[in-house]
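Can anyone check this?
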Amino acid sequence: MIFRQALANDFEQVQKCIAAAFTPYRELLGVSPYALSVDFRALISQKEIFMLQAKATSTIIGVVRLAQKDQHIEIANMAINPDFQGRGFGKQILTFAKNFARKRGLCEVRLSTNADLPSLLVFYSKQGFIETHREQREDRTIVFFTMAI
C-alpha cells in the first residue's frame, strides 16, 4: 500500500471512491452526505486530497482530504472503497494524517462526522479522538473530534 497525493488525472477514481463510500449513507441519514457535493477537482488542484493505493494494482482503496487550518490538520471526506472496508485501512489513513501533521510541526488533528452515524463515532473514539462539541447544521447534527499528537 502506498499513500500519495491525488493528481488531476485521478479525479474520476477519487470521485468513484467517494460515491461508493458515501452513497449508502444517503438512505440511512435521510439526506445526502456533504461529501457527495464537494468539488474534489478543486481540492485536488489545491493539493488537499490523498489516496491510499494498492501498489501492485493501482486500485484506490481510500481517499482523504487533509487541510492545514491554523495549527492543526483537519481530516475531511475520509472514504474507504466498500470492497476494502473492515480491513484496517481507515486506521491506516488516520495514522497517515497524524504523521502528515507531525511532519509539518503541528500538534493536533481534528475531524467531524454526522451524529447519526454511531459506528463512526465509536470508530473515531476507539482511535483516540476526543469529542469536543456538537453543532446543529440545517438538517443534521455534526460531532467534532480532536486528537493531540
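Reply from J.R.: I decoded it. The CA atoms of residues 131 and 145 lie 4 Å apart.
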